[in-house]
């Protein structure tokens, strides 16, 4: 017998009705039986107890048959239904937008599209710009029998497939209020790593505030002269920064809170691509320049 709550509840109610009718027959209370309205036709003919048993058993069988028919698909895996768990035709109402043929699969379907169409339901017509041949958020523009990609500022190439090279500037400067130690010659030394951490925080905050598109800073070398250093400042390709602007910004910030009151001596900035001389100020120039 099915082990589910609806069946148990209904069988319980039938049993209650059955017991009520049985007791009424045994006591000869025909009037009460008529009021229950369970089996009016049988009651009218003075059905005996055995007949009542047969009728209730018959009704229970009828109920179970209908219950099985209505819940048969509940035991089927997804994509199947009915008494025999037959495969559901998922292509029944699928047209594939009129541009393909539907292929029924277990618990789903696949549209096999005609040429020039694609998509879940073959709803999209392919063209030179559809789907978009431009990479990295580039915009496709039709040009007669061809197309052109308008790239975002960060990318270039026919399909915007190449990232534009970042701008890297090499900065060489001295910090006159610091004392050089021979340990700074080794970039892996713990003293040097501590200095790099301190200076990275200072100059990263400075460049982020002064210039849009700042990416990172990498220290390459330390040398005597109070403490001198050479580092690379990297910026996005879209940044409008150049060596002159970096030099001028460092000169203005010299000895101020923008550089955490770091006093700079010599400042040299080179973009690594120029054939001319780097932008340079001699030792003490920036400090004297700021003092007027």
Automatic annotation (TrEMBL):
The keyword Repeat applies. PROSITE patterns: ASX_HYDROXYL, EGF_1, EGF_3, EGF_CA, SEA. One of its GO terms (molecular function) is calcium ion binding. PANTHER family: CRUMBS FAMILY MEMBER. Residues 87-123, 125-161 form the EGF-like domain. Gene3D superfamilies: Laminin. It holds the Pfam family EGF. Residues 165-281 form the SEA domain. This is Sushi. Coiled coil: none annotated. It comes from the Eukaryota. Disulfide bonds join 113-122, 151-160. Keywords: Disulfide bond, EGF-like domain, Repeat.
């Amino acid at each position: 017998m099915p082990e589910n709550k609806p069946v148990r509840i209904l069988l319980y109610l039938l049993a209650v009705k059955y017991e009520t009718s049985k007791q009424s027959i045994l006591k000869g209370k025909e009037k009460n039986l008529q009021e229950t309205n369970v089996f009016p036709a049988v009651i009218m003919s003075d059905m005996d107890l055995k007949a009542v048993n047969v009728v209730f058993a018959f009704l229970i069988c009828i109920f179970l048959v209908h219950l099985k028919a209505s819940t048969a698909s509940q035991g089927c895996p997804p994509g199947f239904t009915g008494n025999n768990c037959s495969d559901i035709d998922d292509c029944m109402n699928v047209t594939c937008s009129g541009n393909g043929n539907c292929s029924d699969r277990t618990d789903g379907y696949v549209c096999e599209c005609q040429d020039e169409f694609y998509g879940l339901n073959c709803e999209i017509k392919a063209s030179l710009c559809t789907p978009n041949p431009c990479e990295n958020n580039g915009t496709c523009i039709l040009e007669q029998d061809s197309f052109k990609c308008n790239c975002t500022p960060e990318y270039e190439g026919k399909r915007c497939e190449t990232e534009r090279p970042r701008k890297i500037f090499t900065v060489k400067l001295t910090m006159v209020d610091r004392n050089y130690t021979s340990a700074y010659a080794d970039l892996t030394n713990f003293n040097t790593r501590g200095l790099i951490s301190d200076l990275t925080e200072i100059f990263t905050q400075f460049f982020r505030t002064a210039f849009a598109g700042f990416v990172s800073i990498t220290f390459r070398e330390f040398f005597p002269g109070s403490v001198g250093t050479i580092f690379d400042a990297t910026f996005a390709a879209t940044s409008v920064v150049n060596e002159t602007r970096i030099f001028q910004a460092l000169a203005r910030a010299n000895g101020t809170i923008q550089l955490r009151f770091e006093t700079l001596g010599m400042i040299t900035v080179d973009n690594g691509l120029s054939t001319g001389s780097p932008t340079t100020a001699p030792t003490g120039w920036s400090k004297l320049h700021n003092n007027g």
